[in-house]
Amino acid sequence: MIDGLRLPPHWSWASFGEVADVASDLVDPTLTPDAIHIAPNHIESWTGRLLPFATVSEDRVTSPKHRFRIGQLLYSKIRPYLAKAAFATFTGVCSADMYPINAKIDSKYLLHWILTPWFTGEVARNQGRTILPKINRIALDRMPVPVAPLREQRRIVEKIEELFSDLDAGVAALERARANLKRYRASVLKAAVEGSLTAEWRVKHPKVEPASELLERILKERRRKWEADQLAKLAAAGKQPPKNWQAKYIEPASPDTSNLSELPQGWCWVTIEQLNAAERPISYGVLQPGNEFPGGIPLIRVCDVAHGRVAVDQLKRIDPAISAQFRRTFIQGGEVLLTVVGTIGRTAVAPNELAGANTARAVAVIAVVRPFIPEFLELTLSESSMRARLTSAAHEVARKTLNLEDVRVACVPLAPFKEQQEVLQQVAEKLSQIEAAEVAIDHGLLRATRLRQSILKQAFEGKLAPQDPSDEPASELLERIGIHSGVQLQEPGYNDKRSQISNSRRSKSV
User: DSSP 3-state assignment of 37?
Assistant: First the structure.
């Protein structure tokens, strides 16, 4: 019935409709507002685990739903390739996009079969619709089910749950480790921008140029570049500099430090505008980029900026004529990019290879004046507290938007030039270690997923639990199911404690 799956002796193939019934029991959920509500998004793919859920009233459910009971299976008929199914340990109502199922064989045995790639692959091949795939009841009833002797089904379930329990404990440990790494990453960035990361370095290097002197050099270079730009424009137009033309230079806003924390000795607060080139004011990018233009100008959008990098390989290309209307945001390389519409606070330093590219309106360009290091500003803006300050300054229009004026006057810490280099080196080393640990965790989680499927594969090949020749053959079990249609068969004295609901959940029953 399934290519590559050979059943052991005393097992038999059956159709899903022969071993289970879909229990349609539509009810008005508004009559039971405190009932638990389960939808497909409350079930984790491939594991059968329930995710956090709520009640009917909390989910504001009003349309008819299926009532489900303890011991039934809940199976998502929408997008069945996601393999979302769970065993009900409490009563409640479920989405009309789900089937409550009464199993005539061991319920958890059937659940584990539903969660195999074999079953899901067969369902995916028989699903209807193209926009929103769905498996109807007729197609579901035709799906093949390998049926083991009833006693062996229970031995298989016990072994699966024992192995899955160990596996889940390992996965939980990996998830905790990943959460700890996320917190550690945040603490590294916080320590970097507050100066505590390089506290020992400062003790060993007491005579470096302080940030206040560095700022003076930056401001002088800022003005010099502006004057050079003005003269170049006048020369290109064939004009002589007018009298007092240098007086047109506007000094950048100084920081308001009244509500700012104290910085380490040698550091100082500055505004982003003080670090930005006067001839290239902080600007929004292209307003309406138009359709994809093969061979055109690369466009950096919000979705292209993440984790301090620009996803160069996925950039959209736009008409050069449209890009030419937004010259202030032409990329030269080394600019700090900041997302200011929708998702606020994503950052990256524009790589030199993108020289000539442009940005979308949601991405502001900060042209840093050297000798300041742009990577240090990017690091500062990516730190969680700074990102929170920027987000809080944003306002809602159609989408959350951060005004450029708020970006210009935003205050950031300035470290001495040599200390900026040290901060970046230490952060790079620590983040490299974090990323390596995250890769190891991802590999561990992938191995756990593969091991889960390997366990199920062995289970339904008859290799996981011992076989007993004295067990009633599956063929006889199926005959009895046919006689007692609609009844879940149990042997005398069998008490499936796994189907009992915990006292803590009884109060939420329908």
Answer: strand
Burial group, residue 343, by CB count within 10 angstroms (0-12, 13-18, 19+):
middle
Whether 10-147 shares its CATH topology with 257-415 is answered: yes
* CATH value of 10-147 in 3.90.220.20, 3.90.190.20, 3.50.50.60, 3.30.470.10: 3.90.220.20
**What distances in angstroms separate CA 398 from CA 10, 283, 304, 385, 395, one per listed residue?**
65, 20, 21, 25, 10
CA dist., res. 262 & res. 256, Å (int): 13
Beta bridge partners of 76: 98
For residue 333, give the nearest of 314, 316, 355, 312 by alpha carbon: 355
Query: Between vectors from CA 175 to CA 48 and to CA 438, what angle results, nearest 5°?
Result: 130
Helices (H), 276-416: 320-323, 374-382, 384-393, 404-409
Q: How far apart are CA 219 and CA 26, in angstroms?
A: 72
pLDDT tens by residue, 168-189: 999 999 999 999 999 999 999 9
Residues of the chain short of pLDDT 50, as ranges, are 485-510
Per residue in 84-129, pLDDT (tens digit) is 999 999 999 999 999 999 999 999 999 999 999 999 999 999 887 7
What residue type is 427 in one-letter code? V
**Residue 31: DSSP 8-state:** G
Candidates 3.30.470.30, 3.90.220.20, 3.30.160.100, 3.40.50.300; CATH matching 257-415: 3.90.220.20
Model pLDDT for residues 426-463, shown as the tens digit of each residue = 999 999 999 999 999 999 999 999 999 999 999 999 99
